[in-house]
Structure of Salicylate hydroxylase:
Amino acid sequence: MTDTKAKQKIIIVGGGIGGLAAALALTRQGIQVLLLEQAEHIGEIGAGIQLGPNAFNALDALGAGEATRNRAVFTDHLIMMDAVDGNEVVRIETDEKFRERFGGPYGVIHRADIHLSILEAVQHDPLIEFKTSTHVADVKLKSDGVEVSDTNGNVYHADAVVGCDGVKSVIREKTIGRHHRVTGHVVYRAVVDLENMPEDLRVNAPMLWAGPRCHLVHYPLRGGQQYNLVVTFHSRDEEEWGVTDGSKEEVMSYFEGVHPRPLQMLDRPTSWRRWATADADPGLDDKEPQTDGHQNARADERQAHDRVMKSRHDRHRTGQQRRDRHERRVAAKNHRDQRIGEHQHPQRGQNLFQVVAVIQAADDQPLDNQTI
């Protein structure tokens, strides 16, 4: 460790999975960390999360890999199903060959369990200082670092600040002024106990049921004693970001016409939590950072950013037009193939059409790992 790194100090705002992981990563470089969390107790909300081999490798590097492995469930497969007709679309084995090829296992875990695994490593790190019940109100960029103040009037100084404070980030709002934007996607989450899980769906695998503008995912947690259930759909209404209690009636209204096998899952949870999701453009904004009179030459950066975004938009629009034309040609060809296949091999022609329909449905509704 160099003397320079030993003197460096960084403030991290937010004690979720991201904030704790960032703290451990910095102390691995010999940098001191002050972690500020607004909640009275550090914890994690939500249900399950899927971890690929790279995630376990990252956790190993942070010193939390073994604890996470002890709490995770290692799956046998990854399965994608057609939510309309109930047929299997694809299955990926996650056995020993998978682990050898990708350098690690594929697992699923409760968010509270992975958070606890990282928290335990943080608590044993002498370079990390915790402060809970600390709601950050402002941050100022100074010539010699940053100044962070909370709602209790306390002021903290450091070389830099890292914002891990979520969608309504104070750090982002006070520095670049970038606000969140609501996506229109709604995510329902629930945990179902093993005895309440349909027997034909007690599978040691993340199973995704892909449907038109909606999908459903379930997988085991905590030694298979619970199952995480996540349903996602694009809302018919104008949404406002937030987390509220959900209703079975709303979920069922978006899954009309799906196969009875996945449909039975929607009746099992005793309670739902509803997330109206949001994201943020990582680009520049009109707000200038607060500094000690230093001139910020960001006008050129903003103009360059605007040109890049316009170019991306134009390429996206042109590409979408090409994809639309291609999909129409594919649909027409598949319709002809289906009729020929049904005449020569009725079952084979039907299956071909179903697979194409599922792929198109999945393309309409991209899978978002944050919602799973």
